Amino acid sequence: GAVVSQHPSRVICKSGTSVKIECRSLDFQATTMFWYRQFPKQSLMLMATSNEGSKATYEQGVEKDKFLINHASLTLSTLTVTSAHPEDSSFYICSAFLRGGGSYEQYFGPGTRLTVT
Amino acid sequence: GQSLEQPSEVTAVEGAIVQINCTYQTSGFYGLSWYQQHDGGAPTFLSYNGLDGLEETGRFSSFLSRSDSYGYLLLQELQMKDSASYFCAPYTGGFKTIFGAGTRLFVKA
């Protein structure tokens, strides 16, 4: 099946620094990727839609200047958490859709656990 | 707007059958997906119903009734490894999925 990778899997950073998370589609091209965050024992919250070659679309309440998204190629989207604070500590997951045979299958990366100290 | 309702928790024993129901309200609807997520891991795709009826994939089956805005995931021959969270996710177009709170399934020996 389709594979989406994320890097790094875990990162610890100091408050005030920036962290970049990469999301790659390994065996298919993804013009659109999605970024979610998930707090412990809660559901996935869609943060933004990453569009190759154009600006990301952010969900209501998500600060675009804080969560910078770049989708420079058909296989890579990056999320940069700028000036991270402890409340940004979360599990960040990217995904991409694969459409075929009348089915819409969303493939998720393994996630990145961010801890801001 | 959009709303999703699933039971928050379900407990069942190994070898049993469990059904996780989902009712939804969306503006625009193409089909219903189900995802499984183990603690600490990312969600994995289980099934998609684009048409009414039952879709079977091994021990898992999923059902959709568009007229009732209702679907369910049926897990048979439960195994301990099936303990996880299960999310129903309506697909409303634009390749975007909104997840509800999910159902935590606990499988007991």
Question: Which characteristics define this entry?
Answer:
heterodimer, A: 117 residues, mainly beta, seven-stranded mixed beta sheet, 11 strands, 0% helix, 57% strand, B: 109 residues, five-stranded antiparallel beta sheet, five-stranded mixed beta sheet, globular
Give an overview in words.
- The complex is a heterodimer of chains A (117) and B (109).
- Chain A has 117 residues and is mainly beta.
- Chain A contains no helices and 11 strands.
- In chain A, the strands form 2 sheets. In chain A, strands 2, 4, 5, 6, 9, 10 and 11 form a 7-stranded mixed β-sheet that branches. Chain A has a 4-stranded antiparallel β-sheet with strand order 1-3-8-7, with no helix packed on it.
- In chain A, a hairpin with a 2-residue loop joins strand 7 and strand 8.
- By secondary structure, chain B is mainly beta.
- Chain B has a 5-stranded antiparallel β-sheet with strand order 1-3-8-7-6, with no helix packed on it.
- Classes of the chains: A mainly beta (117), B mainly beta (109).
- The interface between A and B is medium-sized, with 23 and 23 residues.
Quick overview:
Chain A has 117 residues and is mostly beta strands. Helices cover 0% and strands 57% of the residues of chain A. Chain A is globular.
Structural class of chain B: mainly beta
- H/E topology pattern of chain A: EEEEEEEEEEE
Strand content of chain B: over 45%
Strand count, sense and closure of the main sheet of chain B? Answer: 5 strands, antiparallel
Over all CA atoms, what is the radius of gyration of chain A? 14 Å
Number of strands of chain B: 10
Question: How is the largest sheet of chain B built, in terms of strand order?
Answer: 1-3-8-7-6
Residue stretches of chain A low in confidence (pLDDT < 50, at least 5 long) are none
N-to-C SSE string of chain B, H for helix and E for strand: EEEEEEEEEE
Binned strand content of chain A: over 45%
Overall mean confidence score, pLDDT of chain A = 90
As a whole number of angstroms, the C-alpha radius of gyration of chain B is: 13 Å
User: Which whole number gives the mean pLDDT of chain B?
Assistant: 92
**Gap between N and C termini of chain A:** 37 Å
Backbone shape of chain B? globular
Report how far apart the termini of chain B are: 41 Å
